[in-house]
Amino acid sequence: MLIGELAERAGTSPRTLRYYEEHGLIHPSRDANGYRQYDDGELRVVHEIRTLLADGFGVDDIKPFVACLRAGNSAGHVCPDSAMVLRRRLAEVDGYLARLTEVQQRLRDQLKEIKCQMTP
Amino acid sequence: MLIGELAERAGTSPRTLRYYEEHGLIHPSRDANGYRQYDDGELRVVHEIRTLLADGFGVDDIKPFVACLRAGNSAGHVCPDSAMVLRRRLAEVDGYLARLTEVQQRLRDQLKEIKCQMTP
DNA sequence: CCTTGCCTTGACGCCGACGTCAGGGCCTAA
DNA sequence: TTAGGCCCTGACGTCGGCGTCAAGGCAAGG
Description:
homodimer, Multidrug-efflux Transporter Regulator, Chain: A, Domain 2, 5 helices, about 70% helix, DNA-binding
């Protein structure tokens, strides 16, 4: 499978796949002409990468998950290294949620204050 | 008041104040030597700006609040233009909270799954 | 042979709120 | 006079996940 086909099957672009490779997430072999060659398993890996990115992980955080998948595990998050990253990210998310909730409350309060002035 | 003093009183840097000016949020007068001169009221304005930035507003979003304050209102958010921005930002925050909560749930599920495997 | 369409590497652009030099002027105290 | 400390403008660096253009090679159909 060439890069264009994998990109389409994964719902992304060749540029994106080269970017993942550049950052050590995937290691395709090469054809005689220099073209990248991917086997079917890489589709699963790319999906894992994209899911994690969508969940806010950084590229470096994702490496353990990919390694875990390649080691033959059923999912990328069942390895100890992955678990550490998961816990770190969960703590981050908890923090963001707390701060965002505060902001949300302030915004609501200010909007409520305006409505009160509308009907004095 | 020179830029350094205002910066210190506002808990920020001269560079930051110049940045705000560059983006039309403050308009200090100039001394004969070209130095920026701020009156005491600007401290209040800068605090408003920093609070809004901390709440995730962009520089452009903040302009109505500053204008509202300068118009003599007790707070920057009591004007109609500010209210529109407030509603937009609240909708954004609601969206972020929803997505982050989903992520949080997925992360918890994955961590739970690992613990279950620890004690088979 | 030529066009078309895939592939390659390299490198700049984006966004936003500044940090951080670089190079130079103003003012004051010793 | 000079050293230090403030001020000025201008401009590049930061972070991340790519988009996008540039310049060129490889393969296949007409």
